[in-house]
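Exam prep: given the inputs below (a chain plus pyridoxal-5'-phosphate), describe the expected output before reading on.
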Amino acid sequence: MDLSERVPSPGSANPSAPSRPEPVLLSPPDVGPLEESYLIRALRSGWVAPLGPEVDAFEREVATRAGTAHAVALSSGTAALHLGLLGLGAGPGRTVVVPTLTFVATVNAVVYTGAEPVFVDCEPGTGNVDVPLLAALLDELRAAGRDVAAVVPVDMFGACVDYTRLAPVCAGAGVPVLEDAAEALGATHDGRPAGSFGRAGVFSFNGNKIITTSGGGMLVTDDGDLADRCRYLSTQARQPVPHYEHTEVGYNYRLSNLLAAVGRAQLRRLDRMLARRRELRERYAKLFATAPGVRLLAESDPGANCWLTTIVVDPATAGWQAADLAAHLGTARIETRPVWKPMHLQPAFAGTPGAITGAAERLFADGLTLPSGSGLTEAQAGRVLDAVASFLAARA
Ligand SMILES: *Cc1c(COP(=O)(O)O)cnc(C)c1O
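Solution:
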């Protein structure tokens, strides 16, 4: 069907009205001819299934990038979190510590296993796990006789947790780390790649992430047994015999060979895409440097992949609120979003215990994520920066 039959074109009711500008999105997929050629090649190869040479190659390439020995390509980051948690023994009667400031998938994956989530609040400067608070929480859980299966730190908006401080806390408590690096592909901490810090790490290739397969994820680990276990669970826990033999319940979580091909093309462009996001971050930083009461989240982290540039506004000093800028940009058809609404405020997780300081709630109130996609054209970037500048100028 011709879409023009159903959808009136903008301004068609009044031909003399100026046409509305195209919306600028937060982090749209950045795909082009390279992805197209890889996808067509995979399609023509005949491997149209959730296995094949593109999946194998994509796994090797992501493992290399993450500095891990193994990688398991999966249908989503959420699936990778789920299987990683199962691989670490999460289940009924056990506890998993997760940040309250995260995307819901981190917590959902815990609930899928039957384990009980416990929330931990964040540091105001980065939005990442508050490490001293985590240490105290792990002591408290141990004293209460809780059996903690894992801690799942999230590398918020592509800035790694300070693993130099977090790793000894978890090791001291005897609790393995599953790194939720869904947003952090290409980021580093102390020169080491995101994804490599826990017993296993998880990436997402959702459409809005730093690279995309439209939907997909990956579990990376140095632990060969854990990788084998996750791969086995992702293919319906099928036993290696000719007939279909299953001794336990599995999942259908493998990544399509076609989508892995798209991921390989994206990976080839990752460094250029990171450079573009970093450049956008620097331009925002320059613009806000002279605005009182505004800071960038994780601004001082040189290893951040700059997935989403996020400002934090102190309304008392700035004289305006994050929501005011959001409204101003909205009228110019520029998308912004608040920082994640904390999980302890979500009706789905009402009553879930946690160590809550209020830091995540303040970031939710005062934070704003800005258009950060590597595919933003210069014209779009200029529109956003001009709109921010005019907002600030009116309040200077
Ligand atoms: C995107 C994201 C996920 C989930 O990834 P999907 O591929 O969408 O399932 C998990 N955790 C965090 C922090 C994310 O941002």
